[in-house]
């Protein structure tokens, strides 16, 4: 192996300069880890520096005998059968154990590794994209539906609210049943589930899984179709696997809310958008793009805002190539076809105008949705925005704060395990971005992906660093993973083709062996039964906990919020308190306040055994949330009366003797 000189490889071309700037930026950002303990501040500079270094290394390596090892043909032929047998074993494990246990996730990691290994290391002769896509889709279905099968109710927090909204529509047989709610302006999800319930003649839960639930794992094929517009089938299949295995994608495949359906329409729109940039499109292609954008607007507000960010990225890419300030109009036709940039001004203006119109008519907290969001954003800028103001990061959709400073070795490791899969994907995405900024490879479609990923990363990682979380950054990850998966596949293709065989093999092996398992161990992939149950709350409930909520509702008569005195407010852990509030079982319910080592001082409390065994949240007297292992007497004091218990859940009220 030899290295060429800098002058020979034109070191001042855009991709080289970008890699050098990225390396310098990583070095500049590295000291921030000593000023803040936020996980991304500590890890992203290292990932950025590593990615830039690998790309620079790939530029200056010369090896005439480049040949990354491939799997023997008999092994490649046997692996699909092993994968399908592994998927059957995952189903059997769930049925026998009644839950997705750590053994399940360990086995799933092995199966996922076998799938990715086939994609990366199969020879061109043995590569069968159709069979690989079938394995990916089957894995996605099994991984998600085993969670749904093992969960008696629903997975997640918001889903209980949406279930009540769908039930209201079915009861009143009219959309006016939710006219008081912000989803009245974006009702497509609720109408779809209600229509499925009527069409299939099944309960809401089954209708949800037969509609949105089935669409979610199939939607990963849209990533394949999009990536295949840019690269060969091998890397399009790899992008599909990277996306299908991603933790936040799994999250919305099990927690079926409007975000899930909005994600599906977003993926379809991304495909339609890149399609019109890559082919000689007709009015039909552009009409499809317009129709999908309207579908996003009528499905979910956050998805709509993310879509507008994507369209903004596409518009800026258009301007760059029309104005040509960097001379990016000279394309290498062996990489991408030369094509005039698509004019997207009309599409951007239409979607922005329709969004403002719909949001202005959407009710939300006594005002329009648009006015409320702008008010929240202004208030955030005034009260909590500030550099490195990372306090108060949410641990869940419920908005509870994180745990206290970790003490044990496991406590210190878990946060890094939680984000490891994202960091792997981010690293190869950086490499893909560097590849596409080369003058001869730059064009509107790939620049749209690059700018979209960059803008989304600002909302996901940048603004929270300044204390701005108005845009709900946790909802953005699954959308961000689409351009990241595509660019990441391009990045891995680059490293595989340009690095020395030994180094390229090492990089690919790290991704193959670590990426699936890292994503599956992340809390978003196992919200129904967390792998690290002492560190992450379980966002699902067993039969006794669901029965207790129903029984307490019957016992109390499910009083309206204005019928409950402040001293009658019900207190329990988070997230269990959200079940009472969102189902209407006891609307005035909140998180219990329990001093460290002390007892709660509430009149009406609910204790469940999970508070003593798993991660559940309570607050301290300063209203800071923390994970606590509570004994029964800490929440239901001896002087209180027990008015309900089923062995696992107990409700306590003031004793009549104290009256």
Automatic annotation (TrEMBL):
It is a multi-pass membrane protein. Keywords: Cell membrane, Glycosyltransferase, Membrane, Transferase, Transmembrane, Transmembrane helix. One of its GO terms (cellular component) is plasma membrane. The chain crosses the membrane at residues 12-33, 39-57, 78-97, 103-123, 130-150, 206-225, 256-274, 281-299, 305-329, 341-361, 419-437, 449-472, 478-495, 502-522. This is Glycosyltransferase family 39 protein. One of its GO terms (biological process) is lipid biosynthetic process. It is found in: Cell membrane. It comes from Natrinema thermotolerans. Signal peptide: none annotated. One of its GO terms (molecular function) is pentosyltransferase activity.
